[in-house]
Design a protein that fits this description.
mainly alpha, 149 residues, 0% strand
Length: 149
């Protein structure tokens, strides 16, 4: 029943009907006429629309400026590498400064401890605790010996 509803339209005359091969060749001819391998020449006027549309970056422009693009890329890579190295050096400097501060605090602490242990009062206390020592505090003041010149 469905076949009865489908109607196939036949052309009235055989002259009007074109073969698919002739349509294909005609289409290929039109494509060959309009298609070129060269980019269109950019207009002399530089407008925002041409820049944003990408018309500025035609094949001819890119080919003529390829060395400039390569130099820009190389400089960008060198800039990023130097910046990374600089940041690494700054981190190393900060770490070394912190280590230096710690070393100074340890030296100050050791110095104060040594000064405390070398004081006369502390030495005398240690001598009193060790009774077997022959050292003791002098009862008489020291003599001043005058040497003639």
């Amino acid at each position: 029943m469905e076949d009865d509803n489908i109607k196939i339209e036949q052309p009235e005359s055989p002259e009007v009907q074109e073969s698919p091969e002739s349509k294909l060749t005609e289409t290929l001819k039109k494509i060959k006429e309009t298609a070129t391998e060269e980019d269109p020449k950019p207009s002399q006027q530089l407008k925002l629309r041409t820049i944003l549309g990408g018309d500025l970056l035609t094949t001819q422009t890119v080919r003529s400026q390829i060395w400039l693009f390569l130099v820009i890329v190389a400089f960008t890579i060198v800039y990023v590498a130097f910046r990374y190295q600089c940041q690494q050096d700054l981190l190393t400097i900060d770490k070394l400064e912190n280590d230096l501060k710690d070393a100074k605090f340890k030296a100050l602490s050791s110095s104060s401890t040594l000064t405390e242990k070398c004081r006369e009062s502390h030495v005398l206390e240690i001598l009193k605790e060790n009774k077997d020592s022959l050292l003791h505090q002098a009862d008489q003041p020291p003599y001043i010996i005058q040497v003639p010149e």
